[in-house]
Design brief:
By secondary structure, the chain is an alpha+beta fold. It contains six helices and nine strands; from the N terminus they run ααββαββαββββαβα. The N and C termini lie far apart (43 Å).
């Protein structure tokens, strides 16, 4: 009873139940996997942002990600600002494939978390601002701002826990478990986190309509 009175224990129990439900809902039923155009076809120009480098991931990284398709690029704005844009798409999560949260990957790679919040970003073609994660990290003298979210079935999700709940709901209702993680990373210049965040928001606003066209509804 003391175990169940602990909120973290209750949360862990809930996550385990969600995972069990996911196994039943997805693994035990025929799954629908939507057709998706290759991410290599994602536009290289979005408003004032232009791709300046395509950055293919190394095989070791791809083996860890287990994504069905990835996009990793550097974009530069007309102002000279630059940022990195990343998408990993998973057409199914029934065999253990799932997006890797930056909150786990970056600290594991030696980056120290400085800020973990959520922000609202008004985007074109969406009825209300989307909510994304804002994750600020530091490694030595380097800092970066990461804005990211999960996207599946015409839905933008910031919370990792909410993403798991929707996974079960979509598996049951639509027999689908496809998802994607969308991420914008901006190096911090002159210790100005606010300026880096503004650059990231601008890139998100520019590419969001193309993201909606690229990923399945």
């Amino acid at each position: 009873m003391n175990f169940l009175s602990n909120k973290y224990a209750r949360l862990l129990t809930l996550v385990l139940l969600v995972q069990a439900g996911t196994y039943y809902a997805v693994a035990m039923r025929t799954e629908i996997t939507p057709a998706v155009a290759p991410l290599s076809q994602f536009p290289t120009v979005s408003k004032e942002w232009r791709m300046t480098r395509d950055l293919p991931l190394e095989k070791e990284t791809l083996d860890v990600l287990k994504a069905d398709d990835t996009l990793n690029r550097e974009y530069t704005a007309a102002s000279g600002a630059s940022a990195y844009f990343f998408i990993a798409f998973f057409k199914t999560q029934r065999k253990g494939q799932a997006p890797h949260s930056p909150k786990n990957c970056l600290p594991g790679a030696g980056w120290t978390p400085l800020e973990d919040t959520k922000i609202s970003i008004p985007v074109p073609g969406w009825p209300e601002p989307i909510v994304t994660n804002k994750f600020v990290v530091q490694h030595g003298s380097d800092k970066s701002v990461t804005l990211y979210w999960y996207q599946s079935h015409n839905r933008v999700i910031a919370s990792e826990y909410s993403a798991k709940f929707w996974l079960v709901a979509d598996a049951i209702r639509y027999q689908r478990s496809d998802t994607a993680i969308v991420k914008v990373v901006v190096p911090v210049q002159g210790n100005n986190v606010d300026a880096a965040t503004a650059i990231g928001i601008n890139l998100v606003q520019s590419v969001f309509p193309d993201v909606m066209k690229q990923l399945p509804l």
